[in-house]
Write a structure and sequence with these properties.
alpha+beta, Phosphorylase Kinase, domain 1, Aminoglycoside 3'-phosphotransferase, Chain: A, domain 2, 2 domains, 5-stranded antiparallel β-sheet, about 15% strand
Length: about 325
């Protein structure tokens, strides 16, 4: 979440009025994240989240995202629900952008997750994969292997101003995955961005999942690899084996991994680290002037990638065979 686009007060009030959710009392921009503009709305009825979809989100994908949240909630997963106008419309336009309002979830995200949090996330991720199994729509992962080289080219030689030799390292790493990316793994709907700021807890128990705007159809184990990257490293970039063990055990308590997924896990972790290194790098180099946004350090994922490049066995992530 972030704020790239400011909304005039009169336009915002008129937009909110269309949804029948009460009078607008206050609005606050949310500075976390990097993709869309997000605001916390307080009305006379409740709190809501308003999202303005920026350039990275294709408006044609919005029915997938909206439908997915409704589908998952129908199957018991706690996630935001799109708010619709009396005419049944979930997506409108505000400040020149597609926009939607979703319900507000109780709970807090954790900045320093422990092994209990990681176990909860592993289990929650597997439940998400199960709940989405019969979702009728599909969406290609627009940030997968074929998209990585164009991202590196977009960064160009400016990458080397972030870290000397980074562009060459990126191209070498991309070539590895272009030649040998795992195929035909079990898959379906994945979240693809289940970072700590997208998971809520109440008293150490998972209370909700948010921000489904990178969700797509891909390998389940790739989603798990993203979570291992985002939840199980410490501030000094060391991998916490206890957290990895808890996450993997939590996931497998719901959906056991196949032999092919276990074999592929080291490369999936390596590839997911590369994906976030690339998108963070492009965002770091292209923050719009005046945007209320805090770009994430791309070199965090450069350091994580270096760890994965040394891994050859899923047991190094805490998997018990």
């Amino acid at each position: 979440m972030a704020v790239y686009t400011e909304v005039p007060d009169d336009e915002l009030a008129a937009f909110v009025a269309r949804y029948g959710i009460g009078d607008l009392l206050s609005v606050k921009g949310i500075a976390e994240g990097v993709s869309n503009s997000n605001f916390l709305l307080h009305t006379t009825q409740a709190f809501f989240i308003l999202t303005l979809y920026e350039e990275r989100v294709d408006a044609a994908d919005l029915p997938f995202f909206i439908g997915l949240m409704e589908h998952l909630a129908d199957r018991g997963l706690i996630c935001p629900q799109p708010v619709k106008t009396p005419d049944g419309e979930a997506v409108g336009r505000l400040a020149g952008r597609p926009a939607a309002i979703v319900t507000f979830l109780d709970g807090l995200s954790v900045r320093r997750p422990n092994s209990m949090h990681c176990g909860e996330v592993g289990r929650g991720l597997a439940l998400l994969h199960q709940a989405g199994a019969d979702f009728p729509m599909s969406r290609v992962n627009s940030l997968s292997v074929p998209d990585w080289r164009p991202l590196a080219d977009q960064a160009g030689t400016a990458a080397d101003t972030v870290s000397p030799g980074l562009l060459q390292r990126l191209h070498a790493e991309i070539a590895v995955h272009e030649a040998s990316w795992p195929q035909d793994l079990p898959g379906g709907v994945i979240h693809a961005d289940l970072f700590p700021n997208n998971v809520f807890f109440i008293q150490n128990r998972l209370s909700g999942l948010i921000d489904f705007y990178f969700a797509c159809t891909d390998a389940f184990a790739y989603d798990l690899a993203i979570c291992l990257n985002s939840w199980c490293f410490e501030a000094d970039n060391s991998f916490n084996l206890t957290k990895g063990q808890a996450m993997l055990a939590g996931y497998q308590s719901v959906r056991p991994l196949t032999e092919a997924e276990i074999e592929a896990l080291p490369q999936l972790c390596r590839g997911s680290a590369l994906r976030f290194l690339l998108t963070r790098l492009v965002d770091w180099l292209n923050v719009p002037p005046g945007a209320l946004v805090k770009p994430h350090d791309p070199l965090e994922y450069d350091r994580k990638l270096a760890f994965h490049q040394r891994v050859t066995d899923a047991r190094d992530y805490g998997l018990k065979l």
